[in-house]
């Protein structure tokens, strides 16, 4: 009834018909619906992107509905639905789009044989650390391989992970009291629990000459 011609002027109110945040895979289409819940005269709706960023060029806006086809990583961020009718302040609702992804994978070894000119030695403790940025961060998971075979945490091979909500996430492999049989290729594999994104793997070669050869490869 607040839309009738006899209604008193009332400021706008709106809601977005999706929970925040929205998680989407690259290449998918996302539709955000903003609905007027009150206000007289009937409010006008518009969509903006936070921090003065323009809406994606492919975006389609119609009657409060924002559609972004073939979404990419660059389209992620916070979007803002604004309702205004010149009565009171405009009503604003925010929603964040998270585009699933893994990026910026890197590794380091402690002690650092690449900068300290100190070869990996038998009997020492060696730590391999692997760090990856993930969206969303709470879906990040790590696993380790040795020479292509799954590696589980043990007394001498200690695997630890940082809190997945800390971005970027890090996993560590501590090799206690390095033995000759520990030489080989160690692979850190990062993936997202809900899938849809290719995993990242980083190979690190540990041998008596580590520090004199190039590090392993990264695959996306």
TrEMBL record:
GO terms for molecular function: axon guidance receptor activity. One of its GO terms (biological process) is homophilic cell adhesion via plasma membrane adhesion molecules. It comes from the Eukaryota. Residues 12-96, 111-207 form the Ig-like domain. PROSITE patterns: IG_LIKE. InterPro entries: Cell_Adh-Cytoskel_Orgn, Ig-like_dom, Ig-like_dom_sf, Ig-like_fold, Ig_I-set, Ig_sub, Ig_sub2. GO terms for cellular component: axon; neuronal cell body; plasma membrane. This is Ig-like domain-containing protein. It comes from Xiphophorus couchianus (Monterrey platyfish). The lineage of its organism: Eukaryota, Metazoa, Chordata, Craniata, Vertebrata.
């Amino acid at each position: 009834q607040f839309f009738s011609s006899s209604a008193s002027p009332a400021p706008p109110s709106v809601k977005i018909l999706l929970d925040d945040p929205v998680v989407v895979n690259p290449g998918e289409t996302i539709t955000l619906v903003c609905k007027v819940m009150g206000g007289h005269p009937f409010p006008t709706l518009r969509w903006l992107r936070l921090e003065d960023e323009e809406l994606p060029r492919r975006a389609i806006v119609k009657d409060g509905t924002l559609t972004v086809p073939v979404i990419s990583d660059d389209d992620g961020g916070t979007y803002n639905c604004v309702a205004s009718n010149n009565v009171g302040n405009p009503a604003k609702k925010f929603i964040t789009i998270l585009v699933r992804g893994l990026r910026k994978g890197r590794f380091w070894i402690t002690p650092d044989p690449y900068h300290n000119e100190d070869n990996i030695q038998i009997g020492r403790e060696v730590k391999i650390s692997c760090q990856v940025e993930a969206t969303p961060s709470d879906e990040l998971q790590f696993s380790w391989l040795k020479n292509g075979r799954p590696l589980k945490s043990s007394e001498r091979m200690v695997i630890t992970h940082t809190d997945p909500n800390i971005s970027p996430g890090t996993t560590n492999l501590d090799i206690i009291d390095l033995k000759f049989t520990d030489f080989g290729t160690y692979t850190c594999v990062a993936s997202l629990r809900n899938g849809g994104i290719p995993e990242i793997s980083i190979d690190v070669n540990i041998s008596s000459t580590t520090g004199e050869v190039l590090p392993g490869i990264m695959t996306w």
